[in-house]
Amino acid sequence: MNNTRPRKRPRKADTNNERDAQKHKKSRYLTADELPWKTVARSNAAGVGENEGMLLLEEIDGVDVVYEGSGEGKVVRFNMTKEPVMAEAGDGSGSEEWNGIDETTLQADPEALDAPAESHSPLPDNPTASPSDVESDFDVEQLPEWQPFGLHPLLLKSLHAQNFTTPTPIQSAALPQAILGKDVVGVAQTGSGKTLAYGLPILNALLQQTANSPPSSQRDLKALILAPTRELALQVSSHLNACLTPIVNNIPAAITATQDPKKGKGKDSEPVPHKAPPRISIAAVVGGMSAQKQRRILERGVDILVATPGRLWDLIGEKDSLAQQIRNLQFLVLDEADRMVQGGHFEELDNILRLTLRQNADEIADEMEVAREEEEPQVLESEPILDSSSKPLQTFVFSATLSKDLQRDLKKGSRHRRKCGKTSTLDDLLYRLDFRDPSPQIIDLSPEGGLVSTLTESKLECVATDKDFYLYYFLMRYPGRSLVFVSSIDGIRRLVPLLELLKLKAYPLHSQLEQKQRLKNLDRFKSAPNGVLLATDVASRGLDIPAVDHVIHYQIPRSADTYVHRNGRTARAMNSGFALVICGPEDRRIFRAILSDLGRQEADVSDMVVDHDMLDKLKHGVTLARQIDSVQHKIKKDNHDRNWIKETAEALEVDYESEAEQIDAAASNRKDYRLMALKAELRELLTRPLLARGVSAKYITSGSKSIADSLLLGNHHETMLGLDKPRANEEVAPGSARRTKRRQSKSK
Ligand SMILES: Nc1ncnc2c1ncn2[C@@H]1O[C@H](COP(=O)(O)OP(=O)(O)OP(=O)(O)O)[C@@H](O)[C@H]1O
C-alpha cells in the first residue's frame, strides 16, 4: 500500500498569539491531496524498510489545520502558511554574513551559548517586496489605543500579534514624551512594561530612519541599553527582538543559488536561503559568553546593543572604534539604574557614561574649574571627548525604585545637584548622564509602599532551624512555580539537594554557576509548572519569567528596594501573585525596617495560615533528607581524604598501612549501609499518601472526614488527601483587615 498518506498530521498553531497572528496572513486553503507532501526516509533498522510494503510515510510543514463551520458541521481545511520551498530551506542557515543566532535560540538551547547573542529583522533582497509593501498590510484601526503614538505599522503589527492591545500606564505616559525626543526618567511598578516604554520609541525611530534606505551590512551603533545582570540584558534583547518578529514572519528570506557549504556542490545540494542584512540589528554582549564572537558581531556593526557594563567596558578597552560609536549614540538607556550603581559595576558604568557626554567646551571648562576648586580628582581624571559630528543623544533612565529625593533633584537639574553637594552614588551617576534637557521628563507611577495591587504578601514566623520545614510545607501545600530567594550561595547549595531528595524539581541560579548553566536552569524552571528556582538576588531584578506563582523570601533581603524587586518576579502584567517572607527571630528587626522604609508596618503583612498537623507529617521527610545529605557529604569527604593519603603515600613511595586501609573500608561500608537504609526509608515515606487529620487510610467515606465529595468534585489536593487545593493567597490571616481597621480608628 503506497498511499497511506497522512501519518504525520499537519502541525496546528501552538498558541493563541500564533493563531491571532496567522489570522491576518493571507490564507491559501488547499485540500489534503493538493498539499505538497514529502516522502519521509524510513530506516530499515526501525523495521519499516523500503520494500516491506507496509506503509509510505509522508510529512509536511508550514500548514495550519482550520476547522470551519458549514451546513454539514465542521469542515477541516488546510491553510498553507509557508511556501513549500521555504519549509525546506528556512532553517536559519543563512548567508555567512548574517546568520547570527537569535535570543530565542539561545534560550531554548543553552548549548548554543557560545554563539553571539544577536538577532535581527531582515528585509528582503527581493526587489518585489519593498518595505512599504510589508508595512502597509496592517490595519492600524485594530489597535485604537496605540494609535495616538503614531508608531510604525510594523510595531503595531507586532503588538497586535503579541496580544498587547492596550498600552500599560507607564507606556502611555512615556511614549509621547520619548517619541517627541525628550529625555525620560520612568519609575513604575515591577512588571508594568517598562522595557517597551523605552524600547518602542527606539525601535520606532530606527524603523523610520531606515524606511527609505536599503539596509547595509555596515552600520554604526545607534542605541545602547545598559542592564545590571546578564539574564536581564539577554531578556531585553529578546523582548525588543520579538517586536521585530512580524517582519521576519512576513518576509520570506529570498532564495538564492547559494550552495549549502556543508552539503558540497553535488547534484543533491539544494539552494539555501540567503538572509539579507537586517533592517535593525540587535545584539547582547554579556559576561560568561564567548567574547570573541561578541567582538565579531560588533565589528560587523549593530544598531541596538544591550550590554552589562563589565563586558562592554572590556570590549571598549580593546576597540577604539566601539568607543567612537558610543560617543555618537542616539539613544542611551539605563535599565534598573539604581541597581547598576551597586555591586561593583559602578566604575565600568561611569567610564562608559563618560564616553556619552556631549557637553560643549564652555560647559566642560566650567565644570573643570568647579572640580578644581572643589579638588575632586575623579572629575579631572578623564575629560569628555568632543566630537563635532555627534548626533543629539536621548537618554532614558528606568527602574521600579528611584527615590523621590533623587527625582526631586533631577527636576532641579544636574548643575543644581552638583552645587548642593549631593554625594549618593546614584546621584553621582545621574549627574554624569548627559540629559539634554536640564529638567528631564520624570514620570513616577510607582505605587504607594512599592506594593503592586495584584500581589498578596504574607509572612510566616519560625525559628531559623525550622525554615526548611516551612519551605517544604509551603511548596507541597501550594503547588505552582515558586522562586525562592536565598541570600547566600552556600544556602542554595545546601537547599537544592535537600529538595531534590524530596522529589521536588529544584534548580539553582547564582553568580558562581557557569552562564550556560544559569540559562539552562532558567529555561528548566520556565518549563516546569511546579518548578522551584533557588536564586540569589541575581534574579531579583527585571527577570520576566512567565507565571511565577510564588516568591518566597527564605532569607530576608537587605533593603526595601530588593524586597520590592524580588516580589516583582510574581504578579506581573496585572496577573495575581503571592509573596511569602519566612521570618526567623533575627530577621524580624530587618523586616520591620524594610516595611518602615516603604511607609508600612509589620501588621500590614498578613500571617500565613499553617496546617500544623500536615507540617508535622512533612518534618520527618525533611529530617531524613538532611541526614542523607549529611552522610553523602561524609562519604564524599572520606573518599577524597583516602585518595589524597594514597596518592601522597605513592608519591613518597611509602607503604600505605593495609590495617588502616581495612579500618577505613569498614567505616566506609557502615556509612554506605546507613545511606542505603536512609534512602529506602525516605523512598517509602514519599510513596505513602499524606492524610489530613480525620481521613481514613482505608475507606474514603469513613473516618471523621470523608474525602469522597472532594474527590468527586475534583477540588481535592493532589498529594494531601483530605485537604482541598486553595491558592496561597486564599489562606492568609486577614492582616489587611487589621490595617483597614487601624486606619479607620486613626481617622476617627
Ligand atoms: N502593553 C502591554 N500589554 C500586555 N503585556 C505587556 C505590555 N507591555 C509589556 N507587556 C508584558 O508585561 C511583562 C512585563 O514587562 P517588562 O518586563 O517590561 O516589565 P518591567 O516594568 O520592566 O518589570 P521590572 O520592573 O520587573 O523589570 C512582559 O511579559 C511583557 O511582555
UniProtKB/TrEMBL annotation:
It is an enzyme of class 3 (hydrolase). A motif (Q motif) lies at residues 144-172. One of its GO terms (cellular component) is nucleus. Keywords: ATP-binding, Helicase, Hydrolase, Nucleotide-binding, Nucleus, Ribosome biogenesis, RNA-binding. Residues 1-11, 738-748 have a biased composition (Basic residues). GO terms for molecular function: ATP binding; hydrolase activity; RNA binding; RNA helicase activity. Its EC number is 3.6.4.13. GO terms for biological process: gene expression; ribosome biogenesis. Belongs to the DEAD box helicase family. PANTHER family: ATP-DEPENDENT RNA HELICASE DBPA, ATP-DEPENDENT RNA HELICASE RHLE-RELATED. This is RNA helicase. It comes from Sistotremastrum suecicum HHB10207 ss-3.
